[in-house]
Amino acid sequence: MEDKEVASRIRRHHRRLLPEKIPPRLSLSRKVFEISCPARLLRPNSTDDTSGKAEVLRVDGPSKYVNAKCPGYIKQPLFQTIPSGASRYCMLRWNKKQESLPLQLLRSEDRKYNGLSQVILGNLGVVLIEGLTAVLKIGALLLARTFCDDIWPYLQAFSVCALIIDPLKSLVPKVRGIDVRPLQGLAGPVAALTVARPFVRLGLPDLYRTARFWRRLLPIYCGYIKTKYTAKGKSQEKQFEMWSTRHEWGGEKVHRLVLDLSGFYVKSAQILATKADFVPEPWTRRLANLLDNAPPRPFPEVERSIRQELGRCRLRSSLPVDSKGLVLLDAVFSVVETTCLAAASIAQVHGARLRDGKRVVIKVQHLGMEVAMKSDLRNIVWVAKFLEGQLPFDLGPVVREIQKTIPLEFDFEREMMFMSKIRLNLEQSGFDRIVCPKPVVDLCAKRLLVMERLEGIPFTRILHPHASEELKCRIPEVVNLVAYLVHAFGQMFLVDGVFHADPHAGNLLLLDDGRLGLIDFGQCKVLEDPVRKKLAIMIVALYDNEELEIASALEGLGMKFGDANGGIVSDSTLALMARIMFDTCYVQEATVSPMSTESILRSTPLTSFNQALWLVVRALVLLRGLCYGLKMDISACTVWRPYAIRALEDLEHISV
């Protein structure tokens, strides 16, 4: 009876099958060790306790082996393990009550047990080794999922079949003709990653979003590096074919990354979509859809956001609420369109009609987007560090300015202020062909913006490669309006000191009356007077085309370039770099990607960048992209010279 009870208790501790009976003549030591080895166990002949003769017993489940020693024969093990090089033991204490207590211990065959301290050190070693092994396995699986995503479902299926947990044996079907035993070591980590994913997504959304970003970015990066080196030594026709295939693949991958993650990556994609002068055509073709057509959120979620924010507007005290404390939409709007007019990186826009019949649009911020944006900004910092040394310029100042300005976009009250300010400045300056929407101030809140509706066609639809002939016939109107917009930016940059920093095609409308509609004032900036004066000096120098003055103005703006060979950068090269950064005219060197080995930045890298000018340069990059797409060769410096002269007169008292 006692033998059966002992065997039953050992089975419960180790989840394995043991012999039904333990030989009654066996005198066990209080020191019993167990080793994980191959699936065989040797036990002594029941007629001779010390002979060492043994018979082989096969055990199901995890391979467990007992190595027991008799006090009278310390060097002669009664239970002898099959040599396998393994050194992981478990200790069993077999006392008078026939109870067993497993405890991990790292031990060699000829090593003598020396007390509790050795057990603790052995446990620590086992934990460290097993922990390191688990980390390496999980790291390998994450890399496999990153670069070989298609095989992940098969790996999950085979790993489940390889699970050696007894309760699952009757549930998991046997895979005929396939040996899944090699996957037994990965079955646990695969199961852990599969089960942990929903918990990480809910409990650690920041970590989950970061992992998704890098899992999608790394294959794109490695794919381009692979093509870069494999294309060397090939003929030009073969290189063109290889890069064309890679750009098609990369454009699709980047587009899927942006659609999947949204947030800040949509805004980055919008910039890339306007840079047809050096961004590959497959990229701009796919990313152009994101200029005003980012993935929208479902209307019930949007409706809840609108009702919550209406409870924070100026009229909140006079608006009726429901039992949950949310403002009733019918109390403010007679109609709210469920289909969005446009979806952007942090918000989306719906058409509506106020109770007095006025047509408006509602711009409401996505729920939870502020948390996601913080994660995205951290990822951009890591991308900058990852690309450090691979780009001919330092991304640090640009990233720092992005970190400073992007969070400001979440304050729609700030956007309302800039919208009103720029609209008033343009009206007072006589730019009556540019229309900025008027906000409904009493209904606006920090995450809600209600403004008048501008009826028109976005430039993205007119400039789309597959636009209808009717829309293509209006391209000359767009060309005239873009030229007019360049004039307006001279007024904003140099005279007013307050400018719209996001003039991509999705934020420009061809209105029904032929005027230009300017929308989305989330990215705006106020230029300090000293910076504005230095910029005016640069514009005048570029207009005069005096290389020495241009080089001096460039240094005054805090832009410094170096020579890759350690020499001195010539004034002509500095003048060329200044024209690329602060003009919109066609420059051949500006059409070469900074990643290309033929880029001028490879021989003349940018060593210092004034982050206060990032949004100025960004707006000029977008304007240059518009001009390039419309085949316009217009020099902003020529247009802006009168505004620069006026700025220098107004700022004569400012020392720089």
Automatic annotation (TrEMBL):
* Pfam families assigned: ABC1
What range(s) does the Protein kinase domain occupy? 335-656
Give the matching CDD domains. Answer: ABC1_ADCK3-like (cd05121)
User: Which InterPro entries does this one have?
Assistant: ABC1_dom, Kinase-like_dom_sf, Mito_struct-func_regulator, Prot_kinase_dom
Gene3D superfamilies membership: Transferase(Phosphotransferase) domain 1
Question: Which superkingdom?
Answer: Eukaryota
Q: Which PANTHER family does this chain map to?
A: ABC1 ATYPICAL KINASE-LIKE DOMAIN-CONTAINING PROTEIN, ABC1 FAMILY PROTEIN
Name-wise, this protein is Protein kinase domain-containing protein
